[in-house]
Each structure stands twice: as structure tokens, then as C-alpha cells.
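User: quick one, fold this
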Amino acid sequence: MPELPEVETTRRGIEPYIVDRHIIGAIIRERRLRWPVAAGLETTLIGTRIVRARRRAKYLLLDCETGTLMIHLGMSGSLRILTHEEPPMFHDHIDIILDNGHFLRYNDPRRFGSFHWLESDDHPLLNHLGPEPLLDDFDAEWLYQKSRGRRSSVKQFLMDGTIVVGVGNIYANEALFLAGIRPDRAAGRVALARYNVLVDAVKQILSGAIQQGGTTLRDFVGGDGKPGYFAQQLNVYGRGGQPCRRCESALKEIRQNNRATVFCPLCQR
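Assistant:
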């Protein structure tokens, strides 16, 4: 599933081709996404100019002169720029045609993504999101205060989008390893000093993943159609039973909320 680094990689990949360009056409071949694409979206988009491409959590927000197109890539979606017309493949559901001759094409085999037209950022999908992990308002004091009294695991706490956005399963595993914190420890029992280390680890892991273009595990490609390479640097995720890169002891794999969690019993205490 595309996580924050993959979405940010997509945003950076498409931004140079779409900002300050007018939309001259839109083709919607399949409306049955996670939420049905609204009737008339094609008409709404035609003629408007894209003034900015930004990201909030895992949502891409294409700010136009008349509103904002909010896109979620779902479980398997991708957006890429085509510099010339190519026949659509089976899962190419939406094309946005720009006045520079480029196409923004949305592909989604599982159809769990979404396209919404917004008049403002006041939307149920955005209203209750936590802070962005790479900004200054995400800090140890925030995590510490939010965690008091919580019995849920620190990993599940870190993946809660109302606490901090965009830290999915892969990056939660990696950040907790880097911070030396066991993922099954209760969030309320983690000290402020440990949250200081964890915040730094989250920022380091996410920044590194963005620089590498995201983590390609199955379907993800960036806006330029190229895969991400951060998977080559994963320390624990997907490596259950293999030797720890630090101490060489066997990594342990458990299930938390039906998700794989991998950690080092020696390095993460």
C-alpha cells in the first residue's frame, strides 16, 4: 500500500508537469472506486488551472483555481505522467489531460483509491488527522502526552492517524527498530526520553524513504513510472527469522492487529 513516502514521491514526480497547467480534458473509464467518482467531475475539471500540488497524510491535493482535487492511491493505485498518448491498460481508470500535451494517468488494480472534488479543506477525511511527521509540531512532548494511560502497543499508537499521519506498517517497524523500542510495549509505558529518540527515528526513516523514492514491495511506482528503492535498506520488515543487521541474533516476527511485526529481541527492549 502506498504510504506517506510513496505519496510524497508521487507528488514530487508529477509536480513539475502539472503546476500552472490548465486541464483541457478528463476521461473516467471506471467510477467504481472506494467511493464512486462523482458524476460531472470531468466537466468540473475542464478549463481550471492547477496552481499547487501538495500532500496531507496519504492524500494528494491538487489545488486548482476553482477548488481542490483530492486523490488517495488506496491499496494499489499509482499516478504517473505520460508525455505522449498511450493506449490505456486494463486498470487505467482515469486520465487528466493537460494543455502541455501531458496526461496524468491513474492506475488502480484493486480500485481502493478515491477522487474527490473539494470546495475547501473542510472534509471528513481530513478533519481529524494528526500532525505531519516531518514538521516541527510532531515532537516527543506531543507523543508523550497523547500516550498517557494508553494500553495499546506503541506500534499501533504510532500508526494511529489521529496521533501522527503517514507512519504505516513498514515504517513503524523500521522506526521502532532504529529507536530500540519493542513494538509490543504499551504506549503509555514509554518514557518521554524514549519518545524523543522515536520521533528522531520516524523523521529519519521517512526522510530516507522519500530520498530513495519509496518502498516497492508489490505495486508501487512513482510519478515518473520508476519503482522506489528503500526496500533494499529495510532492517526488519519482511526479514522475520533472519539475522539482525546489528547484533546478528534472529529477528522475531509476531502478528499485531493482523499485521506483520518484526523486531530484534536484543536490540529492542
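User: anything notable?
Assistant: The chain has a mean pLDDT of 91.
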